[in-house]
Amino acid sequence: MTRRRVHLAAHFPGVNNTTVWADPRSGSQIAFSSFAHLARTAERGGFDFFFLAEGLRLRELKGRIHDLDVAGRPESLTVLSALAAVTDRLGLAGTVNATFNEPYELARRLATLDHLSGGRAGWNVVTTSDAFTGANFRRGGFLDHADRYERAAEFVRLARRLWDSWEPDAVAADREAGVFVRPGSIGEVEHRGRHFSIRGRFTLPRSPQGRPVIIQAGDSDEGREFAAAEADVVFSRHGGLAEGKAFYADVKARLARYGRKPHQLKIMPAATYALGDTEAEAAENAAVIRRQQVSPQTAIAFLEQVWGRDLSGHDPDGPFPAVEPDLSSDLSQGRVAIKDRAGVAARWRALAEEKKLSIRELVIEVTGRQTFVGTPQSVARQIDEHVQAGAADGFILVPHLTPGGLDDFVDRVVPLLRERGAVRAGYTGTTLREHLELE
Amino acid sequence: MTLHLAVALDGAGWHPAAWRESPADVFSPAHWAGLLAEAERGLLDLVTIEDALGLQSTLPDGPDDRTDQVRGRFDAVLLAARLAPLTTRIGLVPTATTTHTEPFHVAIGIATLDHVSGGRAGWRPQVSPRASEAAHFGRREFPPLDQVLNRPGGADLSADPHVRDLFAEAADAVEVARRLWDSWEDDAEIRDVATGRFLDRGKLHYADFAGRFFSVKGPSITPRPPQGQPVVAALAHARLPYEFAARAADVVLVTPHSAGQARAIVEEVRALSPDLKIFADLLVFLDEDGQAARRRKARLDELDGAELASDAAIFTGTPAELAEVLLEWRRTGIEGFRLRPGALPHDLFRITRGLTAELRRRGAFRHAYEAATLRGLLGLPRPAGRYAETAP
């Protein structure tokens, strides 16, 4: 059997409690130098792309702005355009919400990024029904959950029509003949749909990739179907081997329905890592990182999100609270909602009692998701094994430090992956589509 | 006092036939990088970048079918961001419409441009009155602009209720942007390990804007930009946009066709605002030999099949002659100029090398960048955040 190639991408450490800001090595999450450092490191490692998440409203807990985690970020596509100037090959992908954007404008911005980067643009399509976020937009919050993927699919199909609406050779720029655009080469787009009705001509020639790479990150049945129909990359949460294989098999099996081949959709789970010179040192480093990620205050805040109650009177290093969750109240806004809070609370309580864990120890235990812990050799082996076993096509690495969080990985793990023949020795193409081997 | 000098960049230049004699590939980042490097070499205050949410056209509304002019244009904010890391001192002022965009997105885009450029961002807010552009969004029905222009008194768009609404919306959009830029105090990020707090939430503020066209809660997701507030520059030709500029902008770009008109416009604008910086726009064709400049423009007019028409005065001549015009207009109270090069890069070179040298010889232009931010170059103070409590 031929070896499957491992694809790697890097997530900029942002607004999550996984981003450690209290470490002395932690720098600005806003300064352009931070973005440039991480992107250049990823490019040095031959990564397929650099990935930026998005948030459109500051998160709140108990009706107040959440003040414990990194907050504040720049506008995604603006930063990615600036990064196009300081990188040459690295793909530049960002999350942009389709609910609070219009297809004509966003298609134009993405095509601009693709032109300005020489074909390196990627778009992670997300939607929301969240009126809390909608309070910052003309649209407000208005979508039923069932409509979200329908709107996203209509959005993406319409964006594609706009991207395709200029003939590939539309721009002649023939100075002698005085022909800038070939006659009839700019098509009219007319669309009457459930979510959008637009008519007109697009303002940009076809971009180097034709269309930017489409990324999708939902896990529901509708999300998986949307990915199979429309996406080039799935950003999954299933980093473990068994669940990864199940997800991988399920999503790849859906592709045939849309006339697509398995290699045309890359499945890339988010993954964290902790390295050490020995396995014991790596485990120790992982534990230190986990304690940095879950401060005493963060532990209480986590519990409050599940409990729907103010638990500020509890000692984070003390026993688990005796009080039951208030399921009628939700204290958290602007975060992904926790499903089945009653079940989560019951499981956490049982685990805390069984292992005799304090509040903070429990939160560290249940929110941990260090996917790869070990020496560089063992982490390289684990990553390769996941891909060879059909649990993923690669990983989107989520470092915990800005901006140096990827340095160790690129310096110590990537050379070993190259030795194994798991990753390219260097870039062989110039566009993100070429890096991902989508065609 | 030295004058301020800006250059307006668009395609291959402002003459629609400019591309016929220009080496420019308007869809290549290298074209733009070269122009910016040259503008910065000339120590210009800023460049503006044109934009619209519809194709260029010779018609008042909707696309024409001409194939002999440049069609197509990048998103100006993203283009400015792409150029920011390649420059260090020059201001970057992209155009972005207020009509079909989300004010929140535009505000954080411009704030981000300010962050990535280290305090060199501006924004030229622009209304989009065209029905053809509204059809790209399908959310609003606009009367065709031809129809608006043909109404009684239509030559003055300011009188039209549709246009008045667009300017009212634009004023709201700038107000929201400014509130969002102020919504984080400068020192809101505290990283206080002892209390576990990354932020001091007392230094974050809701924008709480509710208006006729939209409402925005805030705060911004992007921390306060380096300039506090990026520079807002508005192009204005009549009373209504002067009022908009006086209310919303830091710089107004006006279009007098003579020193006398310049004096009248300065008086009208000054009566509305004592602080607004007043720049005059001129479309320029420059050569060391004035005849050559006139012949070049005539050649381009012939290629285009029509004499160049512009809202701004058109100047053809030598850099020395242009310097005299600028200094004459400056005496009327004009503080700076935004020059629209007829052809790129030709006329830009004549500005950055010839004109700046002529102005320097007359003591009217800088010898070195004297500030690191665009506000600094323009002599505009860094505003205090409106929500920040001032020390007693």
From TrEMBL, chain A:
Any GO molecular function: monooxygenase activity
A Pfam family recorded for this sequence: Bac_luciferase
EC numbers for this chain: 1.14.-.-
UniProt entry tagged with the keyword Lyase: no
Domain Luciferase-like: 24-391
InterPro entries noted in UniProt: Diverse_substr_monoxygenases, Luciferase-like_dom, Luciferase-like_sf, NTA_MOA
UniProt family annotation: Belongs to the NtaA/SnaA/DszA monooxygenase family.
Protein name: NtaA/DmoA family FMN-dependent monooxygenase
Organism whose genome encodes this protein: Actinomadura luzonensis
Lineage: Bacteria, Bacillati, Actinomycetota, Actinomycetes, Streptosporangiales
UniProtKB/TrEMBL annotation, chain B:
Residues spanning the signal sequence: none
Keyword Flavoprotein recorded: yes
Residue span, Luciferase-like domain: 28-297
InterPro entries associated with the record: Diverse_substr_monoxygenases, Luciferase-like_dom, Luciferase-like_sf, NTA_MOA
Keywords: Flavoprotein, FMN, Monooxygenase, Oxidoreductase
Pfam families linked to this entry: Bac_luciferase
Keyword ATP-binding in record: no
PANTHER family from the UniProt entry: ALKANESULFONATE MONOOXYGENASE-RELATED, C2H2 FINGER DOMAIN TRANSCRIPTION FACTOR (EUROFUNG)-RELATED
Family as reported in the entry's similarity comment: Belongs to the NtaA/SnaA/DszA monooxygenase family.
Annotated protein name in UniProt: LLM class flavin-dependent oxidoreductase
Originating organism: Actinomadura luzonensis
Lineage, top ranks: Bacteria, Bacillati, Actinomycetota, Actinomycetes, Streptosporangiales
